[in-house]
Amino acid sequence: MDMEVTAWSSLHRATYAQDADRRPFSRATLRRIGGFARPHRAKLLWFLLLGIATAMLAVATPLLAGRVVDAIVDRTSSGVVIGLAALIAVIALAEAGLGLVTRWLSATIGEGLILDLRTAVFDHVQRMPVAFFTRTRTGALVSRLNNDVIGAQRAFSDTLSGVVGNFVTLLLTLIVMIGISWQITLLALLLLPVFLLPARRVGGRLAKLRREAANHNAAMSTQMTERFSAPGATLVKLFGRPADESAEFAARADRVRDIGVRTAMVQVSFVTALTLVSALALALVYGLGGFYALRGRLDPGAVVALALLLTRLYAPLTALAGARVEVMSALVSFERVFEVLDLKPLITEKPDARRVPDGPVSVEFDRVNFGYPSADKVSLASLEEVAQLDTRGGVDVLHDVSFRAEPGHMVALVGSSGAGKSTIAQLVPRLYDADSGAVRLSGVDVRDLTADSVRETLGMVTQDGHLFHDSIRANLVLARPGSGDDDLWDALRRARLDGLVAALPDGLDTVVGERGYRLSGGERQRLTIARLLLARPRVVILDEATAHLDSTSEAAVQEALSEALDGRTAVVIAHRLSTVRAADLILVVEDGRIVERGTHTDLLSAGGRYAELYRTQFEQPSPQRPAAVRAAQAT
Q1: CB burial of residue 334 (10 Å; 0-12, 13-18, 19+)
Q2: 364: enclosing H helix or E strand
Q3: Deepest of 19, 295, 354, 627, by most Cβ within 10 A of its Cβ?
Q4: How far apart are CA 72 and CA 366, in angstroms?
Q5: Is 6 helix (H, G, I), strand (E, B) or coil?
Q6: Is 350 exposed, middle or buried (0-12, 13-18, 19+ CB in 10 A)?
Q7: What is the DSSP letter of 530?
Q8: Residues 483-528: pLDDT tens digits?
Q9: Which pLDDT value is given to residue 438?
């Protein structure tokens, strides 16, 4: 490694030392790292042994070069010189071969570790409750799966081999140099602080610039993410000020440009200065070594060997000086990954969980109370990008909720917005767990059932049916993998969407866009209903499933839903009371409590809250014009 590369490496380590070097050393983290490294221990051992062999070969080359010079000066036979040159060539080939094998091992170990860590984090995150995702910034979570996992991988692919190889190289180089001339070796070591100390100072300046640039880049990324999504772009076009948006983005980009120029100049100035120092040190070695050679105290070849060894001395010295920084940087990445893995899921499956009983399924709520968990129980401050998590929460939003949906019957939940209807629906598939009381399927508490059987039993259409940026086919088969085209077209026909899909150029393979925004609101909702129909669940939960449909589409989908609900247990949430008149039981929910229950006819006769809601929706508006209109016309 030449002096310029060594200078760049030293500066890089010093720059990234500012944060990592302050972190405490964690033995617990090391033990957990060992657990991830254990499957790769055979490759790691070979990796280290080859690194040691490469380091030994690196020291041998300067010595052979010195012997070549001595042979030339002494006018030894050409065969000796050619033999030494051939040996240098063989060592070079061996170094190249070992380098390829070492790089293959490094890549294999590193990529294997990335696979293990990413899979562990991805699987763990999928087990987190919905509350976790409602609070976490998606970008911060994705960063754990990308940047931090790759940072942790460097501990094995770069840092570990670097520490071992550099230590061996340094030890052998020092032994050889001291054996040749301890005076020149001491001089070389005395110049090391001149090389390292400025790196720490300049590294601090660069770290500050790097953090500022990262903050501006994060702000630009957030702005682009929000403005480039379909709903964000629509909002900007409707209410935004394009010139102001452009000016705000340009100001940040301009600052990042200025920081980039300053960073480049600081780096180049530092590297140039240190390269110059290194060149002067090399000149000093040649000067002092040449003086000793002329006095007969050193062979000419020894001077050349010392000069070559000097270039091999600074690289491992600077690398080992920053080894703790590299180790701590890797530990920081591991700890950030482990931080996510240590977040306990609130919803867990019992070891002895059993499947939902066969046959028709009843849904029962037995004196259920529930409050949404506080942030400190379901999230991380670093994922929400706040200094401290909000500890508020746990206040009950459902109070003593009890009802039973008999097999094959429909129970409707109605009431004001925010009354708790959707919360009740979310407790059935265990998106959350009740704080007290029980939610049962066929008489069995959902907390005693396997997650797979609950998912197979329940089908849910939410108010804002979500679609992935994928084809219509891929979005449908989520409900029933392996479904054939006939099943897909049957579900689309029953959702009254087959004609639209058939008219699309790519049919079932048409990509619906991010969150399905290439479809209209009604088309998106009907596609999610088709997905439900394909799943054929025994219990159906509809949370405002027809909220985004026009009257014509609603009538068509209601007909399809009637077919889908036939013989199945249903829990239906609706604001449009016309859609729940035929329900076997209507529950009126207000402030998290069931305040009325009965059939449509009974509740109307009672003249309570349901009757009030019904009159609000269906009474004819006053023919008198609004006061605002009259006033506008009067002017």
Answers
A1: buried
A2: strand 363-371
A3: 19
A4: 97
A5: helix
A6: exposed
A7: H
A8: 888 999 988 888 888 888 898 888 888 888 776 777 777 788 888 8
A9: 95
What span, in angstroms and rounded, lies between the C-alpha atoms of 211 and 255? 13
Residues with Cβ within 8 Å of residue 556, at least 6 apart in sequence: 496
Section 115-124 average pLDDT: 85
**11-15, 196-200, 203-207, 337-341, range with greatest mean pLDDT:** 337-341
Q: How confident is the model at residue 295 (pLDDT cuts 50, 70, 90)?
A: confident
Distance CA 381, CA 140 (A): 11
* 318, HSE (Cβ side, Cα atoms, 13 Å): 33
Residues in a beta bridge with 572: 412, 542
- Indicate yes or no: pTM above 0.70: no
Q: Are strands 569-573 and 539-543 parallel, antiparallel or unpaired?
A: parallel
First to last CA, the chain: 85
How many CA atoms within 13 Å lie on the side-chain side of 608? 20
Q: Are 398 and 390 in contact (CB under 8 A)?
A: no
Please state the rounded mean pLDDT for residues 119-130.
84
Q: Where in the chain is the domain with CATH 3.40.50.300?
A: 408-618
Among left, alpha and beta (phi > 0; psi -120 to 50; other), residue 624 is beta
Give domain 408-618's CATH superfamily.
P-loop containing nucleotide triphosphate hydrolases (3.40.50.300)
Whole-number Å distance between alpha carbons of 610 and 587: 9
Does residue 629 register a pLDDT over 50?
no
CA distances from 437 to 160, 215, 445, 507 (A): 54, 47, 10, 48
How does pLDDT run across 441-457, given as a tens digit for each residue?
999 999 999 988 998 89
* Distance between CA atoms of residues 199 and 204, nearest Å: 8
For position 204, what pLDDT does the model report? Answer: 65
How large is the angle between the packed helices 242-294 and 3-20, nearest 10 degrees? 130
- Which residues are CB-neighbours of 258 under 8 A, at least 6 positions away? none
Residue 635 has a pLDDT of 36
pLDDT tens digits, residue range 529-555?
Answer: 888 888 888 999 988 876 666 676 667
Amino acid at 488: L
Q: CA of 330: how far to CAs of 317, 325, 343, 608, in Å?
A: 20, 9, 20, 64
Domain with CATH 1.20.1560.10 in the chain: 3-341
For 39-48, letters b (16+ CB in 10 Å) and e give ebeebbeebb
Question: 3-state class of 368 per DSSP?
Answer: strand
Q: State phi, psi for 496 to the nearest 5 degrees.
A: 60, 45
Residue tagged 């990509």 (tokens): 511
Strands 436-441 and 410-415 come out as unpaired
Paired tokens of 115: 């696979």
Whether the Cβ atoms of residue 11 and residue 202 lie closer than 8 Å to each other? yes
Judge whether 293 and 302 are in contact, CB under 8 Å.
yes
CA 171 vs. chain centroid, Å, equals: 41
Q: Smallest Cα–Cα separation from 135: which of 502, 392, 411, 311?
A: 392
Tell me the fold of 3-341: ABC transporter transmembrane region fold (1.20.1560)
